[in-house]
Amino acid sequence: MLMKVFDRSLVARITASAALVATMLICVSVAMLVHLDIRQAKATLAGKADLSGQMVADAVSAAVWNLSPEEAAVALDPLRAVDDFAKAAVYGTRGELFFMMKAGAHTVPDDALLTRIIEISHPDRQGRPQKLGTLRVDFDLHPTLDAIKRNALFLVGSGLFFLVLVVWGTVYVLRGITAPIVRMTDVMSDLAAGEIDIVVPNRHRADEIGRMAHAVQTFQHNAVELRNAKECAEKAIATKARFLASASHDLRQPLQSLFLFADGLERHVVDREGSQKLLHLRRGLDVMKELLNALLDISRLDAEAEEPDIKDFPLSLLFSQIEGSYRTVAAAKGLTFSITGSELAVRSDPTLLRRILGNLIENAIQYTRAGTVCVDCRSVGPSVRIEVQDTGIGIPRNQMEDIWTEFHQVGNPERDRNKGLGLGLAIVQRLAKLLDCRVEAVSALGRGSIFSIEVPLGQTSAIARPEPAPIAGPTGGRYAVLVDDDAIVLMGLQSTLRDWGYEVLAAGSTDQALERLRTGIREPDIIVADYRLRGGRVGTEAIVKIRELFDSNIPGVLLTGETGPECAADAAMHGLSIAQKPISSRQLNVAVERLLSEASD
Ligand SMILES: Nc1ncnc2c1ncn2[C@@H]1O[C@H](COP(=O)(O)OP(=O)(O)O)[C@@H](O)[C@H]1O
Ligand SMILES: [Mg+2]
Fold it and tell me: What is the model's pLDDT at position 563?
């Protein structure tokens, strides 16, 4: 308890040390003084006793010589006037008592007496001293001892008084020193806790505390500047992310119609040269779509708009999806693709982890001319380490850091976008950060590379396997309602659905669609609506109102260029599908067919 107080308080510690030193000094001084006092008092009494004895010795000798006790009484009588005199006794040579005189009636115990024995003698007729016996004089020690006690008490009292004075003085002086230190400590604790809008005290002092205050103020200024810079950077990132998100959203609109028209054009292109050009057009569109998606991914990850959905799932499930996606791609390039079976479960977001591994495997396949691409995993402590190994071209040692930065590509100085965008690893790194995982790469030039990620181990509990993708069936003269405020996209959608054999009602707004549906009699089989419509309205409203009109839960698809949570929440609430723009006619076909087959189940 005391040690805790000492640990926490400088004042307590220094005061205790000062009190200890003062106590020791006072104790030693008091002891020495008392000792001296006792010696002094005893010596005085002894001197007095000697003197008194000597004073009466001759008269007592004469009384003994004359064998007269009365004379002895007269000889000893002056002793009564001496302070502290207790008794006197005269003994013969054989120790027999000749005479005794007491100062008072009470008897002083022997251990409280100071005794002096004096030999008495008398000259005989020849003048030779004749031994007559002894004179014993006793003095009472009590008064002297009492005086010593009083003195000692006084000394101890003064000592205690001094001790209190020392403690009080120390605390007083120390408070003057420690109070500003305590205030500085509080300010520093506040700073450390992130409260940087504080006023630093003691700045005007010229001593060490003043210098400490200046240093703390410098820290505070730095912290304020850092916070401002961080806020600026965050704002800039958010603005950049918003800019990128809206730019890519706005680019998706025309791109969407380009996709649909390119698909629609296919039927009308008959000669080889036209087909060739259409192929180039499609390739260009694919690259543009990829670039837009990657840019949007990066801006969303930078703006921290993505929330991982962490759960336990078996790796085998993820691996089987990956195998399905990449075995044929690898085989087409003449590579062996192997993936190790695993009983392990991980705790992560399966979609994001799949995106990470997908990127790494795509790279492995892309940068390997011959040999194998292998996905391996093993448990390492509380994590599972998943490795993507290849026997490819490898990465120069001096570029191992750079490959993670945006648009950095080792072998594409001419920035040919057909050779990739240089954004895959930048996205991988951001996704790994979002999942709180470590990604690493080791590589040997010309021999191959290993990219690895460490994911937390999970509980082995299976998750539902995804439903197999629906296969497009014949449309059988179905009726589709399309709502989009972009006339070109609407035309593109219309021609695409017509190509699939649909009867189509195309409307530029919800009201137009409702108006035209009211005059008709046929209930639509499917509604495809753009999410953002003019006048702040949304496609969800169009679908809901059309459903109300026919009092039927008609399947609906929302087309959107946004990846924010708003559209997803809206869609989930009304049981709608989302198709991300730009969508190819094949992807739209898959989405529509899946919905229709679900509706017919
Ligand atoms: N497995 C690999 N083997 C060799 N080089 C690789 C591998 N993975 C990535 N790289 C190098 O890192 C660069 C950046 O990769 P990435 O960000 O995915 O962009 P991209 O694949 O579009 O070029 C690549 O251009 C390539 O030079
Ligand atoms: Mg890549």
Answer: 66
